[in-house]
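hey can u check if this looks right to u? its 167 residues, i copy pasted from the old doc so theres a chance i mangled smth
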Amino acid sequence: MDHRPSTYLPIEGLTFMAILLSLLLTSCGEDFYYEQSYDIPNAEWTYKDTLNFDVDIQDTLSTYNLIIDIEHSPEYAYQNNYMYIHTKMPDGQRLGKKLSIDFAEKNGKWNGKCSGKTCKLRVYIQQNAYFNQIGKYQFTLEQYMRMNPLPGIQKLSMRVQKTGDSR
């Protein structure tokens, strides 16, 4: 006579359930068309440390969100950060724009989320952007503050996310 409770699963069933749960949890994350990160050596971003992100665009009808994720120390000494973004198009044309990114509110409260020795800030530098040309776009970020090196910047990432919309 079998006296096991009715909720008993054999080992194979537990393994299957663990795999299924793992797949469900990992599928809930964000999906990016492109993503690349750079760790900043010694958390000191210098003028010479330009960061290149090469994005291959094959769909000129879709729209995209262009995102920069910044990890910084809670001891970062400034309310904001200036950086310069250069865009090189597939045809060789170059554009540039200065970005001012608010790391903290006027009262000193950090934007983003802080935990332990790291604060994480997500910045949408352009939402619903579209690309007119098929091919490789190169985005270059450079530090544009009055301090060199700039202490407290730990990691910079660029992400390109398809919105699911068309222009």
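Helices lie at 11-27.
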